[in-house]
Design a protein that fits this description.
mainly alpha, rod-shaped, single chain
């Protein structure tokens, strides 16, 4: 079966020519034409790809996915533990403190604003200072 080919003429520097000749065996290419065509396909895929999964070697992709999955699993476990601790704390507080629904909603609004403003870096000392200054 014959492939239709398009003639593509180009000029390259002697340094680039030497690099191509040195790299050809690494890609098991029989000709410079084959090597340059592979290189152009690779570069075009790299430019077109929204992510670089088509140009990364599979071993790197697998390692990257494994690392991300492991991190995701650890974060999920920590968030679950944090949610359990917060639920326990809220139940203990709710059993001892009598707060009106209106005051609770005002506090929720204030807390949302404070978390947004500080990026989540709220300390217990800040809450104590706020509660005792009112």
């Amino acid at each position: 079966m014959t492939e239709d080919k398009v003639r593509f003429q180009m000029r390259i520097s002697p340094e680039t020519d030497a690099k191509i000749k040195a790299a050809m065996p690494l890609e098991n290419c029989q000709s410079q034409n084959e090597f340059v065509e592979k290189a152009l396909r690779f570069y075009c895929d790299y430019l077109i790809a929204g992510d670089c999964t088509s140009v990364l070697p599979p071993i790197y992709l697998s390692a990257l996915r494994g690392t991300i999955q492991g991190t995701e699993d650890r974060i999920a476990r920590l968030l679950f533990k944090l949610a359990v601790e917060m639920n326990m704390m809220m139940n203990v507080l709710a059993s001892e403190v009598d707060v009106s629904p209106e005051a609770l909603e005002r506090l929720r609004g204030r807390c949302i604003q404070e978390v947004k403003k500080t990026g989540g870096a709220v300390t217990f000392a800040d809450a104590m200072k706020y509660q005792h200054s009112e």
